[in-house]
Amino acid sequence: MSFSEAEKRTRGQRGPARKTLVKAQYETTAAAADYAAAFEDWGPTARYHRSRRHIVGEVLKDCPGGTLLDVGCGPGMQVRNLLDERPGDFRITACDQSPAMVEAAAERVGATAGVRLSVADIEHMPFGDGSFDVVLAMGVLEYVDAGSALREIARVLRPGGLAVATMLNPLSPYRLFEWGVFWPARRAAGFAERLCGVPPDRRHAARRTGIHAVRPARLRRMLWQSGLWPEDVAFYDVTALVPPFDRVARRWARGWRDAPETTVSRGARRWLGTAYLMTARHSAAGA
Fold first, then answer.
1. For 35, 119, 132, 191, which has the most beta carbons within 10 A of its beta carbon?
2. CA atoms of 58 and 52, how far apart (whole Å)
């Protein structure tokens, strides 16, 4: 099995060290609040999440409802969107490995009936076999053992149920430049600034994330191996800009707020998507 150079650069640390690195990023209340705030501003992160929100809504529009699990729910942004846009359609369960994120989600959801929240690891979920009609895994597979996570998703999904998963696109110009040039340049600048005595709060930096992103063909094979049969793939947050130029451009190029559909592609522009979404159905025979 071969990986592209982009994938090799994003595989990060493995095992316990990688899990510790991932958990540390969102273990505090402040980190959870900062993450949620990034959804609402005008920068690249907000554009990414607005684009993802649009494509998730699109793939769920023909789903009549039922039991839904949002695994890796973060501060509950997707749960809140579903409650607002599809009131009463889904009986929602949401979980995240970070207690701070679950606490933030609880505050965002409030006392809404029919929503269950819990602290849980996607690789070892405390839910029964075939418990859900729909499972969402948004922005979580990059940070875990994706094969183990997909097998757990298949286990808790009922036969014929829908799995919706996203993955950062390691072959997009944006990710290639961000991971191969932009982040290393910031780390190198920070190292030089440290040697020159620049105060820590004024140095450049790029934190280690533990991200391991895979290509669509690889994710499709992993879904098959888990007993989940791929149906559709769409690329989102389509952009030809790379960091830091995208940060400058977002100050005036704000059409994505009113027309998020322009940031999604299944056609020729798809490789400009910084991430992609794949849907799959559970097959008891395949499992």
1. 132
2. 10
Q: Which residue type sits at 256?
A: W
Integer Cα distance of 82 and 78 in angstroms: 6
Q: What angle is formed at CA 139 by the lines to CA 188 and CA 80, rounded to 5 degrees?
A: 125
Alpha-carbon distance 135 to 152, whole Å? Answer: 11
| Residue 60, H or E segment | helix 44-60
- Pairing state of beta strands 157-168 and 273-282? antiparallel
Q: Return all residues near 30 (Cβ < 8 A) that are at least 6 apart.
A: none
What are the residue boundaries of the structural domains of the chain, listed by start? 12-169+212-282
What's CA 78's distance to the chain center, in Å?
11
* CA–CA gap between residue 104 and residue 182 (Å, rounded): 31
Q: Which fold has domain 12-169+212-282?
A: Rossmann fold (3.40.50)
Contacts of 77 (CB under 8 A, 6+ apart): 36, 39, 49, 53, 108
pLDDT of 118 higher than 50: yes
Q: How confident is the model over 141-170, as pLDDT tens digits?
A: 999 999 999 999 999 999 999 999 999 999
State the Cα torsion 268-81-148-274 to the nearest 10°.
30
Task: Give the integer Cα–Cα distance in Å for 172 and 79.
Answer: 28
Q: Give whole-number Cα distances, 234 to 73, 152, 259, 274, 279, in Å.
A: 21, 23, 17, 11, 9
